[in-house]
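Service request form, structural biology core

Requester: graduate student, group of Dr. S.
Request type: structure prediction, single chain
Budget code: on file
Notes: please return the result as structure tokens.

Sequence provided:
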Amino acid sequence: MDSYGTEEDQIRAIRQWWERNGPSTLIGVGLALAIVFGSQWWQERQRSTTEQASMLYQQLLQATEQSTADKVQQTTAEHLARELRDSQAGTRYGDYASLLLARLQVDKNEPAAAAAELQALLERQPDAAVGALRAWFNGLLGRHLDSQLGALARVRLARVLFAMGRSDEALAALDAAGSEDFALEKLELRGDILRANGDTGGARKAYAQALEIASGSASMGGTRLLELKQQELDLPGQSTPQATQAAEETP
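Core staff response, request fulfilled:
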């Protein structure tokens, strides 16, 4: 015998099912549509934002390249760097804009401003407790954090602090940069700082470690400069790291 004897029984059964399940079904369908269309909207927005950031970054690079000989381009580069840093906060474009802005400030002989910019950038980087979570979240948003960014910023900060005569803070910045990324640059700079502080033994050790790394690279100029710095440690009346750099650059 048919479970539904008449059309009225069938209609009644459908109505009862709808009363029980209709609202939740509508909610489910609505959520599914919202997710689909919301995802499409978000992806399009991210694509558009990334394209705009990429174009702005290219403009920034071009202006930065011309900034040393053109004051107008220098002003333009600083404006673009700040705009990109603020509009793309938390992304690689925003972080690299901060690095470029600090470089421009060094070129203008504004080391204090450069140091402040680099310190602000480092404060925006995640610590070990939240680094993995932030990396995962940024991956979902298409924001791929450069794992070397923090080390690079600390090396540059250390260089700026050293130029300002703040050697202890410069060494602390190098210590915080870790031991793997930019090892050659960190060791050479550490040697420069220790030599300026009168720590000949520490400087010799740092230069020797840097030479060991440089010998395995194709940077012959860097190896030559390190050898020169190391040799000068044994000479009376040692020259400063800055004087050694100037001598190396002289044809």
